[in-house]
Design goal:
Elements: E1 4-9, E2 12-17, H1 18-28, H2 31-34, H3 43-66, E3 68-70, E4 74-90, E5 95-106, E6 118-133, E7 136-148, E8 163-177, E9 182-194, E10 203-219, E11 225-237, E12 248-262, E13 265-277, E14 283-296, H4 301-307
């Protein structure tokens, strides 16, 4: 993920992080353009499409500008396990709630191969989503609590206190179906407040996330088996990160499978690649993660239906 090219300009040496440009460029091209499909006639969807293009191109330019980093960079390697339990149900035909319970563990130091050795992350995240159309979803998170321990890269990192965070989010996701698979474009804006100095003083900042995901149904019967491939880039701005050398936060690339074990129970597992910047601007965390998700759908409504 860290293809570097040294560029010499005005006697200065820069290290170009290829990931930033590649990921942003991929996401700057909307799938409707890639597959030469006609724009929807619906006025709202057309406007959303134009907004997506503008946001994507802006993100591309920002990543290009912040992708030129000082040549003296340090990268720490990590092994991570990411477990997520999703509890979800419908409120009505268009509205749904979702509770994400997450736990991440990591190796205690770069030399260790035990991804369950040390704590990394715990969170409780509530979402409400509204299906505006069959292909467009709008979601809001009124509450999210996160307890995050930094990646263990340096010898003293494991002794650092965890960082507490509260988060509120707004998300827009559009689905485009083509001949062989479905493509999802997802934009998320997050307002985060974090206790960065562990003094109960929470400092806010904003973070923007852009994801492109491709899903392919491999098997339909007797139980659905779906392949999912995605890439998501994060940029951040605001008071808490005002002095950071660049706006790039992290990039996540994922490939995995999901399978409906029994009705309303889905298991997903795959490989996740993190590439995350530290606040210094010249240190990066490169993590290989096993991501496992257990989804319990129609948590309460399935029992109500049985009683009818």
């Amino acid at each position: 993920m860290s293809l570097q090219k040294n560029l010499y300009r005005s006697g200065r040496t820069f290290s170009f992080q290829f990931d930033f440009i590649y990921c942003a460029a991929v996401q700057a091209i909307h799938p409707l353009q890639i597959f030469a499909l006609d724009l929807p006639s619906n006025t709202m969807r057309t406007r959303i499409f134009l907004i997506q293009r503008k946001v994507s191109l802006t993100l591309l330019l920002l990543c290009i500008l912040t992708g030129f980093l000082n040549a003296q960079t340090t990268t720490y390697k990590h092994k991570v396990f990411w477990g997520r339990l999703v509890l979800t149900d419908t409120i009505n035909s268009k509205l749904r709630w979702e509770l994400l319970l997450q736990k991440r563990t990591q190796n205690a130091n770069p030399e260790s191969n035990n991804m369950f050795e040390a704590n990394h992350f715990t969170s409780y995240w509530l979402w409400f989503s509204y299906s505006a159309t069959d292909n467009l979803k709008i979601a809001v998170s009124p509450f999210g609590y996160f307890n995050n321990h930094i990646f263990n890269g340096k010898p003293d990192d494991i002794n650092q206190p965890s960082l507490k965070e509260f988060r509120w989010c707004l998300r827009l996701e559009e689905k485009t179906s083509v001949r062989l698979f479905d493509i999802f474009n997802r934009q998320t804006i997050e307002y985060r407040t974090r206790d960065l100095k562990n003094n109960n003083q929470y400092i806010p900042n904003w973070r923007f996330r852009y994801m492109v995901r491709i899903e392919k149904n491999i098997i339909s019967k007797p139980k659905p088996l779906t392949l999912s491939v995605s890439n998501e880039v994060f940029v951040q701005f605001g008071r808490a990160v005002r002095n950071n050398p660049n706006i790039f936060d992290q990039n996540r690339a994922y490939a995995g499978l999901s399978y409906e074990v029994v009705k309303n129970v889905k298991l997903s597992a795959g490989y996740l690649k993190f590439y995350q910047a530290r606040s210094s601007g010249n240190e990066f965390d490169d993590a290989n993660a096993l991501w496992v998700i257990l989804t319990l759908d129609n948590l309460f409504s399935q029992f109500r239906k049985d009683k009818v």
